[in-house]
Amino acid sequence: VLLGTVARSEEGGRVEETLSEAADLVELSGRAGGFWSVVGATDLGLAEAFARLGAFQVHLLCPEERTCTQLRRKAAERGMADRIAGQTYGGGPLPYADNLLNLVVVESSGDWSGQDVARIATELFRVTAPLGTIFLRRSAGDRGRGSAVADHLRALGGEPLRPDGVAADSWLCFRKPWPDDIDEWTHYLHGPDGNPVANDRVVGPPVHLQWVGPPLWLRSHESDSSISTLVTARGRIFYICDEAPISLRGPYPLPDKWSLIARDAFNGAWLWSVPIRRWGWREWKPTWFTPRPGDFPLDIRKRLVAVGDRVFVTLGYDAPITELDARTGRILKTYDGTEHASEILYADGTLITSVPLGEQLQLQVLAVDAATGRIRWRSERTYRGTTVDYYRWSAMHGRVPPPRKIYPAPNLATDGKVIALIDGPQLVGLDFQSGRELWRADFPLDQRDRTAGRIRTQGDLWNGTMILADGVVLHASPYKLAGFEAATGRLLWSQPKAYIGHLWYEWKDVFVVDGWVWTWDADLVREPLETLDGRGSARPKRRGRRKQTSLFPAFVNAYDLHTGKLEKKVPLGPIFKTYHHHRCYRNKATVRYILASRRGTEFVDLQRGEHTVHNWVRSTCHVGMMPANGLQYVPPHPCQCYIEEKLSGFYALASDSADWEPASGSSASRLVRGPAYGKEADGPAADPDADWPTFRHDNRRSGATRVSVSEGATRAWQASIGRKVSAPVAVADRVFVALVDEHGVVCLDADSGRPRWSYYVGGRVDSPP
Prior knowledge:
The strands form twelve sheets. A seven-stranded mixed beta sheet has the order 3-2-1-4-5-7-6, with helices on both faces. A five-stranded mixed beta sheet has the order 8-38-39-40-41, with no helix packed on it. The protein has a four-stranded antiparallel beta sheet with strand order 9-44-43-42, with no helix packed on it. The chain is mainly beta. Strand 40 and strand 41 (612-614) form a beta hairpin.
């Protein structure tokens, strides 16, 4: 008994020391969740400690298959199999995509004894995400290889870190810096200046899958989008999402389930979520049905901003602005006086927003100190904003009741010197420091702007484009683009635009890149669409209607930001010549490409004109894509159009700039012969007529069997075997199920439900055996 007590005490001491060591590493990493790897793992100590300290997914790379099998089973026995996975690793390229891991722990550099230390360091750097950390355990047995790898990490740009506490003398630590060629996307339109362009030179036509996550499907196509907006900062992605069952549609009595959700931007790992109580169609209109077009409410996508380790959001449609810790989701403060903030901008430590006042819903602009919550100033005047955008309350077969109140959108943008906004038919400029009105200017509307898209504007300006760049304010309507001097409001220049068609938000497609203003050419072309035999379609679509044709711009133009002079015309070719309407969201851009969505994603190459079309990539209605962090983020959608060629789910897609390539023969090595391979099965023989050997019974997926089941059947047994189980299959006297998130397969006795055996693998088993 005494010896057992001493042994348990020593084991408890080791566990406590490991937990303290892991806590030191977690604190140094600056992360509260993400995807981590332990290279050279021989026990579960560090991995289990990491998994218990935050929202961490831990992947073990074990030197031997026997060790890997033991650690998988031990993780399952401790209820950690959904957080800890493992596989064998014998050296060479690490089995991860580029920029995937938030933290890499190397238990022993001696495991790479036969490899070049420079290649080891390059691999560690490759798989680590920007701002991720690399930990090398100091060991006398590695013969100095750990220090040599550390020297190469330092040469690659790794920032040395100094751990404290228990880990101080045991680890060499480095942080991977943020690359110069990728960019964040902190506001709905990239930044507070309203220019929807990422300074990102890595985003490009998709070739690789970085990660995929939930939700796989959204609510009905005929209702409001289940994702309201998304932004990203410091390697995290934030979005507002309705997680209620997608089967609920129409005026159902059950509540929605809206949340602000945070995931890691480079691997999609769930970090945290905060509930939003009052959000969704019931808060802003009297009906669930959304006629197309339905870009409403006007300001809903501008209610979320992320900067550094802080998130600013309205946790309710009429709620004030709240500040959250981006690492944990903890609420830090609520800003009094910002109830029903219509839009949020963050610039130089100041929040710029507007709030509606009175029955007429006039907007007052506020500047709030983000650190203290003190209101720095309120605008002396109130402003009308605008309610002009692409939405209607009529559908093909009738009308829906409009909301009692339509909150106007100010269309705020700032460069830290001037704040630009809409006041009905005019543009207004405010001083950023004091809120004093500097100027107001008339916009040179085209007469056709008053009824473009069958939207009646009453002379007010269109919501959508407001950009401040290098001392110039840009605004656009469906038929006009104009630049104003930001300091005085003086009209500098104007150029024609053209309304293209249903759901093509072309007046919002204005992008400033390196001193040029890019937008679609005003001269549109209409061409007949081709039939399957390659000839132009001469068949009327319907009696009395025009032939099947496509209307699209032939060029994208670049104008000088200060003079409006045409500097470049890039031919678009036939990339927009296709059936159907433009996807129902505005387009975004990088310094290299416009990511258009005529049908899926068209990468419009602004430099070389080498455009590419990707019909299988489309995004959430009214929200759209987000090009950032070197990736193309594609939130899910409810579309049924072209359903056989589209991706479903939340995707992060990478371009062909990725460095990783699978090792030769890696596909063949994935097939592993288990311990029962080549052995005769014991027990009764299979009975094809009585068994259910595969999902939906057979290869035809018939879902039917000849076996009769008594009408008076009662429950014979019930077994609790896992958190999420697959559909079962049954052969002879055994039942088999997969433990989906616990990485296992379980065999049960068919007569009693008693477990016979279980086997654990290196990842999710999402289908029946």
